[in-house]
Amino acid sequence: MLLMTVISMVMMDQVLTVEMPPDLCGFYFKYFILNCGPALLHPEKPSADCCKVLEDGDADCLCKFASSPILPDLGIVKEYYLATLANCGLPDCTPPPI
Q1: How far apart are CA 28 and CA 16, in angstroms?
Q2: Which fold has domain 2-87?
Q3: What are the structural domain ranges in the chain?
Q4: CA-atom Rg of the chain in angstroms
Q5: pLDDT tens, 59-79?
Q6: Mean pLDDT of the chain
Q7: CA distances from 97 to 24, 68, 69, 81 (A)
Q8: Residues 6 or more apart whose Cβ sits within 8 Å of residue 82
Q9: Are 63 and 31 in contact (CB under 8 A)?
Q10: CA 51 to CA 2: how far, in whole Å?
Q11: CA distance 68 to 51
């Protein structure tokens, strides 16, 4: 539910209105949520825009993020997150245990 709130706020441009340095694995979290949100909430193929955002990121960091304790707090389903990475052509990863 939190992820949907964040997506809504980003779409209404109420969050992160000032461009800042990349803040998550080498890309902007705002664009990650906006472009990849649907694939992180439901088992669907990610958009080309989502894959472009992920391509700009650090693959090792993205893999480690799968074990982040904040993932569930954001409403991101770990299996969908990993499937999104795989569907965007990132190398398979086995996230480290928490």
Answers
A1: 10
A2: Hydrophobic Seed Protein (1.10.110)
A3: 2-87
A4: 13
A5: 888 988 888 888 888 888 889
A6: 78
A7: 19, 9, 11, 16
A8: 66, 93, 95
A9: no
A10: 22
A11: 20
